[in-house]
Structure formats: structure tokens, C-alpha cells
């Protein structure tokens, strides 16, 4: 989560915070029982308590609907490659890590903690992650850095990232880049490429975010801010622009997933309206997509 995200309107949103929204993937349930030591019968009440605390910090739809228990990284087609590379010593940074769920999935699957790090602007999200996963003895707090990706001093020698700056082999952005318009996404990725990732071919930036079949700037469904929704063509065009601006070249993989549900408990699909339009035809169904960008030069 990042400080450059606009304010949220209509935060009461009872359809997002009902216990009927409770959802946990099989992977998360297995992890909470066998990694965190939580009794199966306590998982629901335990997770609801953590969700309610996180909602008070920032009422994102993904928090209200327990998406932090639906690990996104493991669904990326590159997950097996990522896990292997981390086990071989490469360093991984989860940008906008929130409660650090994807980091715990990596650890549970055998990634060494010494190579895994998280970055978020909200310290309390990190604290709640430790409450949820009960693993401070396994994952020391210095593995999480508290700052904004847009902080000008983040990669200074005495900055928040410290010796991680320029030494990350794999950066992950889950549900992060889609918070911004085109220029904000470009600025964030340029920062990651220029100051956070190693300056070698083979480094990766991957993630998962919301998109739509017709690309463009859309009014966000609940934030008083606009964001850019990509399809494959626009996303790869953005990476071409970034490559030209940074003097780098990237191979970009893009995979659309299914439609998103609106959080009402019904089968209606989440839609967004194109900025500056009131035309029904400018409404687009929101779809998640996974991506992997690998530097080739």
C-alpha cells in the first residue's frame, strides 16, 4: 500500500466486511495450520479479527474480502521459477506487501528467509502479519522495510532499503501498480528498475493486478482517484516506453485471469467507468492479470 493512493469514499461498505465474505484458499488454510500453528477450528475467528484491525487502517476491498488469505504469487505462472531462484540465493522483494502473505507462502514452500524481504508504507500491516502468521522467530522484523516506493531517500546508503538497494534479483508487485494512472505506474517501475533491481539481464519484475479488455484511464470503483486499466497491448506498450526511458529491454509475459466479483455476495461482476464518461458502453468488466517482465539487456 502506498501514500500516493487517494482517499477512499463510502468506506462503510457492509458488503465488503460481512463475515459472509470469509474466504480462505486451501494453501492459506494449510499454511495457517502447519506453519503458524493455528487450530483449524480457530482459523475463521482468528482471520476475522485480523481483517477487522486491518480494515481500520485502510479499508481496501481486498482487505474486507480476505484477499490476504488468497495468495496471488503462487498463481503466477512463474512461481516455480521464482521459488527455485530464491532457493539458489537470489534476493526477492515484495513491494506493497501488506500483511506479507506472499512472503509467508514462499517460506512455507522452502524459500530461505535470508533471501526474502517486504516493503510497505504501513507499519501496522506488518505487525498484523506477525499476528496472523505467528512467525517472528522464523522471520525477523528487519526483513520488512517501512516506506513509500516514491520516497526520494529510499535507496540512499542510509535509506530504508539500505544494502538491498540495487541488489534485488526479483521484485514482486501484487495489487499495487493498478493503484496509479499510466504516469504513476511508469514512475514506480522506473524506480524499481533503476534503483532497486540488480543491473543485470535476467532480473525480474512480476506481479498481479486489475485490468480490462479495453485499456484506458478509469474512475476507481471506490477511491477518489483515477487509475489506468491495462490489456496486454497497452501493458507491453508501457514496458516499451519504460525500456526506452531507462535504456533497458524487457521480455514481458501477460496472462488474463477470470472476471472479478463485486463483493455483494452475488455473481455480479466488478465494473469500472472510463474517466470523463457517463456512457454505459464505457463501463468495463475488471479482470485480474498476472505478468512477468524479465530484463534481456
Automatic annotation (TrEMBL):
Pathway the protein contributes to: Secondary metabolite biosynthesis
Entry keyword Glycosyltransferase: no
UniProt xrefs under SUPFAM superfamilies: S-adenosyl-L-methionine-dependent methyltransferases (SSF53335)
InterPro entries xref list: Meroterpenoid_MTases, SAM-dependent_MTases_sf
GO MF annotation, one: transferase activity
Record carries keyword Signal: no
Record keywords, A-Z: S-adenosyl-L-methionine, Transferase
Residues annotated as signal peptide: none
Protein family according to the UniProt entry: Belongs to the class I-like SAM-binding methyltransferase superfamily.
Name of this chain's protein: Methyltransferase domain-containing protein
